[in-house]
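Problem statement: downstream parser choked on a complex file, so we are re-checking the raw output for the 3-isopropylmalic acid run. The parser issue turned out to be on our end (a line-ending mismatch), but while we're here, posting the original submission so the record is complete.
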Amino acid sequence: MTAFKLAAIPGDGIGAEVVAAGVEVLEAVARRDGGFTFRVDEFAWGGEYYKAHGRMMPEDGRAQIQNHDAILFGSAGHPEIPDHITLWGLRLAICQPFDQYANVRPTRVLPGITSPLRHVHGKELDWVIVRENSEGEYAGVGGRVHQGSSLETATDVAMFTRPGVERIMRFAFELARSRPRKLLTVVTKSNAQRHAMVMWDEIATEVAQEFPDVTWDRMLVDAMTMRMVAKPQSIDTVVATNLHADILSDLAAALSGSLGIAPTANLNPERTFPSMFEPIHGSAFDIMGQGIANPIGTFWSSVLLLEHLGEDTAAQRLMKAIEQVTADPEFHTPDLGGEATTVKVTEAVIAAIRGANE
Ligand code: IPM
Ligand code: MG
């Protein structure tokens, strides 16, 4: 029997509540499957750790999780600590050195959930957004000088490398090819950004030659927001830069009914380092500790985790259990307009896993 080593990093805010629920559900699905188990190590890193130690994770933090098979992450963000410190000190401090360059964000309208788009029920909205996750606008290149003077200057340089763009394009074309419609939209802004975004477009055209069976088109990011709302059925797989995809994936999550259900995989496709799975929603301090956080985003992220580990049967079983539970409004948390608690949704998903047929 395979025993997977799972690193659980709850982080801040509702992260603790949803990661605890996610671990329970992963253990339940492993028990139901019978072919694998999880050995879970929990790492209490984040805002509270920062207040005690002056950093978000220990200096050797990455070494502590480097040999795990996967990471389940909650959220980073703390009301008393600037956001750029919590982000760069934990989430990006893991994603970037572990070269998790492909951030994958599926979006669907799950059964029982209402999209704010009229006439969209299920099939009309089935997307996967691939977010470049290692460079671009999040490269961390830039600086700030003459602080406090009237000449104060600050720059954030969006940095794009040929290998970085080639690998994300190839990843996106391959993912598009694996889906029934074989359809990819490359998001760009090469009308205004005439260096890196022009290279981005050129590399997309080059890589496309390797995938003659994939239909692809190019779309400016501003026009893409309109297309997502006006013609959701015309979209399947999407690839975009770090910042463009960050923004588009929030729109996608909202159009699918709630940010509370949206999942993410931060993948290191070469498997040199562990990959990390997390709900898209943040730490949500306004509802922290109330027991009403929606755990579905973490459960769906756990489906992606199981797929990455090659446990496809278990992944499908968990996805089915999630859909069975969302179909019943009784199990909707307040973000979906219901009154269910995190525990109630978690118990329902575990019951559905237990009852699921082969
Ligand atoms: C996301 C989030 C993060 C990001 C925040 C928390 C910094 O919005 O995962 O989409 O911008 O990458
Ligand atoms: Mg975001």
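For whoever reads this later: The mean pLDDT is 96.
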